[in-house]
């Protein structure tokens, strides 16, 4: 039986508007059509781009960003911003490197070490959520502080000596392949699937979207919003922690800066895929398309020989265009530029 709160969560986007017609809205298909167009253009411009090996490389390159973007997406759906990714990934990367077989100590916890590193990241994510609901300050401030905490923990564990891993299980995630793709890529696919299932079928996913669309309505319907905010940030931290583990597997070493740049890259991918910064619209599948757009664009520009000096500008232009296209239908709602 559907509760009043659940009903409100499902109707939060535009309760005063009539239900949309059946079919997939253009705004949802736009990023996918853009991805197809980019792939077609680069395939025509470069034979190397359309090679099977290069397509496999694109999927492998997108894996870590896809995992991190799953976490960012849930936070964005709430209308919040998460800048804790570098610190959380860094703490997870150093922790897992020191917990599995390595050159710094006698630890050899294997899978348990991986789980403990992800648990540390989940705890840091939960700390972001607790700081948000208790301090009542903007999320970008609290998460920036938690990122600093994570980097501090990582630096203390690093102790000036880089831990190199020799654990077979962790190494295999980046080296071993199944159906032509690295194990880490399949892990990313599973993360996207799990994220979509949580978003689509769980109360946490529905309420995360509802908080971003109309938090006041959800609160008036009797839902305690604060615990769900903490839960969303904890879930996001879990994804960041797994991304940190995958970076360590890829580099065969733990680095404090393992998550450097992934915060803005994940936010960019999510927004390009159609997840709004203002919350209430988008989702994991949208963001996964955004990850592929960003990765294909980067790979394609290299394949067609575009100078690295121009690549950043081209990518930036496309990102701005994508954000403008996503926000344009919402221009009346977003009267204030923040």
Automatic annotation (TrEMBL):
Location of region: Disordered: 1-23
Compartments, record wording: Cell membrane
InterPro entries according to UniProt: ABC_transp_permease
Bilayer-crossing regions: 29-46, 58-76, 112-133, 140-158, 178-198, 230-249, 261-277, 284-302, 308-328
Main location: membrane
Keywords linked to the UniProt accession: Cell membrane, Membrane, Transmembrane, Transmembrane helix
Protein name per Swiss-Prot or TrEMBL: ABC transporter permease
């Amino acid at each position: 039986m559907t509760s009043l709160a659940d009903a409100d969560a499902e109707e939060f986007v535009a309760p005063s508007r009539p239900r949309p017609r059946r079919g997939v809205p253009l705004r949802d298909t736009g990023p996918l059509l853009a991805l197809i167009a980019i792939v077609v253009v680069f395939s025509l411009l470069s034979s190397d781009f359309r090679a099977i090996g290069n397509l496999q490389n694109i999927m492998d390159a997108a894996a870590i960003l896809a995992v991190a973007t799953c976490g960012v997406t849930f936070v964005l759906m709430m209308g919040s911003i998460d800048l804790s990714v570098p610190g959380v990934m860094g703490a997870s990367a150093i922790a897992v490197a020191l917990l599995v077989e390595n050159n710094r100590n006698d630890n050899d916890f294997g899978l348990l070490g991986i789980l403990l590193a992800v648990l540390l990241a989940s705890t840091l994510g939960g700390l972001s959520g607790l700081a948000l609901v208790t301090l009542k300050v903007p999320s970008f401030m609290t998460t920036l502080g938690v990122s600093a905490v994570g980097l501090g923990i990582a630096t203390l564990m690093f102790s000036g000596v880089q831990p190199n891993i020799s654990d077979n299980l962790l190494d295999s995630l980046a080296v071993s392949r199944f159906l032509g793709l690295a194990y880490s890529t399949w892990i990313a696919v599973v993360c996207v699937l799990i994220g979509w299932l949580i978003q689509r079928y769980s109360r946490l996913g529905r309420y995360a979207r509802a908080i971003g669309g109309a938090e006041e309505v959800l609160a008036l319907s009797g839902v305690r919003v604060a615990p769900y905010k903490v839960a969303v940030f904890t879930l996001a931290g879990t994804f960041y922690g797994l991304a940190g583990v995958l970076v360590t597997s890829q580099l065969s070493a733990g680095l404090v800066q393992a998550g450097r740049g992934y915060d803005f890259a994940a936010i960019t991918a999510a927004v390009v895929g159609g997840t709004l910064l203002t919350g209430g619209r988008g989702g994991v599948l949208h963001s996964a398309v955004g990850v592929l757009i960003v990765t294909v664009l980067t790979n394609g520009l290299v394949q067609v020989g575009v100078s690295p000096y121009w690549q950043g500008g081209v990518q930036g232009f496309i990102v701005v265009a994508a954000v403008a296209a996503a926000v344009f239908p919402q221009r009346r709602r977003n009267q204030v530029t923040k």
